[in-house]
Amino acid sequence: GDAITQTDADTRYVNASGDTMTSDLILQHTNCNGIELKLNESDNFAIQRFVTDGTDDNRYIIAYGPDHPAEAGNFAVKNIKAGGEIFLEAAGGAQGLRVTSTGQVTLPEQPRAWMAKTSANTQTLSGADTHKVTFGQYSAHNGMSFSNSNNRITLPSTGAGDYLIQAMVSGSITTANPGDGIYLDVRKNGSSIFGTYSQSLFGTGNVAGEEWTASDGYVVPLAGSDYLEVFINNVATSTSNFQLSRARLSVYAVG
After folding, report:
1. Coil/strand/helix, residue 241
2. Which residues of the chain have pLDDT under 70?
C-alpha cells in the first residue's frame, strides 16, 4: 500500500504470522552511521535463508545467547551444503580464509621468499670477523621483496606475524688451533635473532679442508618492513679460512 508516516514515538508492529515483503527492507537511523538490532539478552540471534518456495533450506548464522550455556557466546554458521564454503572476502573480491563443507580450512598464498647462492667464494676470518653471505638467485611473492645490492629479504610494508625462517650454508674449512671454527648467524634488522649462544656453533678445531654444513630453522615474530640477512661469524680469536659453496635463506609467513 501507500507509505505510512510515523513519528519517533510510534510503536511498530510486525505480523506475528509473517508478512511477505516484495522489496528491500532498509533499517536506517538518522543520527548514527550504523544500525543496531536488539533482542532480549537471553535470546539467540539468527539469520536464516529461505528458498523461493518459502521453505527453509536449513542454512543459518546464529549467535547463541546465555539461555544456551553449552554454546553461550559462540557464533556459528550452521549446515553448510555439500560443496559449499564459508569464506572471508577482502576489498576487490580477494578471498581469504575458507572453510569447506567438510571442515577443511585453507588460506590464500602467504608472503614468502627465498635466496640461493649461485657461485662459490673463499673467505678468511680472524678474531671477531664476520662475513655477509651473498646470493645470486631470488624469488619473492605476495609482498615480500629482496635486494641484489644488500642481499636482504624484506617483509611486506604493513602487518606483523609469525614467520618460518630456514637458513643453510656449506663448504670447506681450514683452521689452525683447537676451538677455531665458524658459525651461522641469521640477523633481523642488523641484529642476531637469538644472539650468539642461541645459534648453532661449529667449532671445528685444527682441520685442513674439512667439509662442513650448517643449518638453522625457527619460527619468529616479525613486523612490517623487517629485513633478514645471513652471516658467517668467526669462532675464537685465530683465523679460519673457508670456501662457501652453497647457501640458502627462505622465509614464509605461518601466522
Report:
1. strand
2. 1-59, 195-201
